[in-house]
Amino acid sequence: MTGMTMVEDLDVRGMQHCETTALGVLLRHEGLDLSEPMLFGLGSGLSFIYWDSKAMGFPFLGGRVKPFELTRNLAATLGLDLLVAETTSPRKAWQSVAVPLESGRPVGLQLDSYHLDYFTTKVHFGGHVVAMYGFDEQNAYLVDTDQQGGAVSTSLTSLATARAERGPMAAKHRSFTITAPSNSTAPQDRIIPAIKTCADAFLNPPIANLGHRGIEKTAKQVPNWLHRSDNPQRDLPQAAVLMEKAGTGGALFRNLYRDFLAECAQLVDSRHLRTGHSLYAEAATHWTQVAALITTAGESGDAEHLLQAGSLLHDLARIEREAMQALSRL
After folding, report:
1. Mean pLDDT of all residues in 190-194
2. Are 219 and 212 a contacting pair, CB within 8 Å?
3. Quick one: which of 47, 179, 36 has its CA closest to 108?
4. Is residue 175 domain-shared with residue 192, that is, in the same domain?
5. Number of folded domains in the chain?
6. Among the residues of 165-303, which ranges form H helices?
7. Which of 6, 163, 238, 309 could form a disulfide with 293 if both were Cys (CB 3.0 to 4.6 A apart)?
8. Euclidean distance between CA atoms 235 and 57, whole angstroms
9. Is 202 in the same domain as 299?
């Protein structure tokens, strides 16, 4: 076929979360096949943020480190060569994608998912990450999450618009490739440092809306959420969907971290690790209940559900703090 560039023999599996999906594609191409929880955990991906401002229609709850930080963490942890290109020029931006693809290497992209043809829910999110593995005259061939269809395609025009979009969390046409040097670190040797990095950040947040303090703050704010919105029937269920669906793997990324700790406990024999795992298993269940209570409150207009959610969130601040304290002792 003329004018088609494709990376050969690529394993194009979608996962639950966008950035770990893209990392999986790039790393498998380098001969490193890690589970999604392992990618998330070795990237010290778990976090918490409560974000609200006058400009926002409704508060945002985040469960992970900011976009692309997971990729940087993972590369540093495993000693991988991460080559990042950013530019304001669409022409240069295209070169930094076309050149590696033509030499047979998949490329990661950070862009705004709003413009991608295959996205059914049109929401601006500038922190979306995909892997690109080919292109022809019309289309770009991408790997996105399972939820978005795994191996998908979008027009080159829509890709260019998505990459050029400015706004919260957007990066300037960011693209990246990863190379694993022959002497890169065995992943299991990096488990403990990656967990401790994550725990330290979570236990010592620089501001009160991050980490365990952020969950505590959320516990105080959620009971007033019916009054915080001009359309609670829309905003509360939508906030819950973002916690459970939106690429979080459920329970605001807690399911992924629970599974990461379970996998680690198979590789490292440690009481602290087992404690952390059982507490995160409990936390994951609680987060899913919180999301359900928020949905019900929005649909019914009954603040009692938000009081229950608030009290679960108080428990969560404590459970996750205890989990991270145990893990920081590894």
Report:
1. 96
2. no
3. 179
4. no
5. 2
6. 191-203, 211-221, 225-228, 232-244, 254-267, 271-300
7. 309
8. 9
9. yes
Nearest to 7 by CA among 118, 117, 110, 141: 141
Q: Are residues 142 and 22 in the same domain?
A: yes
Type of residue at 168 = P
- H-run or E-run covering 129: strand 128-135
Q: What is the pLDDT of residues 28-49, one digit of tens each?
A: 999 999 999 999 999 999 999 9
- Please state the pTM of the whole predicted model: 0.95
**Token pair 């009481």 is at which residue?**
271
How far apart CA 309 and CA 252 sit, in angstroms, is 14
Answer whether residue 52 is part of any domain: no
Please check whether residues 104 and 220 belong to one and the same domain. no
The verdict on 114 and 166 lying in the same domain is: yes
Q: Which domain holds residue 251?
A: 187-328
**Integer Cα distance of 327 and 323 in angstroms:** 6
* Distance in angstroms (rounded) separating the CA atoms of residues 98 and 299: 48
Q: What is the CATH number of the domain that holds 271?
A: 1.20.120
Confidence category of residue 329, pLDDT binned at 50, 70, 90: very high
> What's residue 182's pLDDT?
87
| Residue 186 CB partners (closer than 8 Å, separation 6+) | none
DSSP per residue, 53-100? -TT-SS-EEEEEPPTTHHHHHHHHHHT-EEEEE--S-HHHHHHHHHHH
Question: Tens digit of pLDDT for each residue in 292-318?
Answer: 999 999 999 999 999 999 999 999 999
DSSP labels for 42-54? HTT-EEEEEE--T
**Domain contains 65:** no
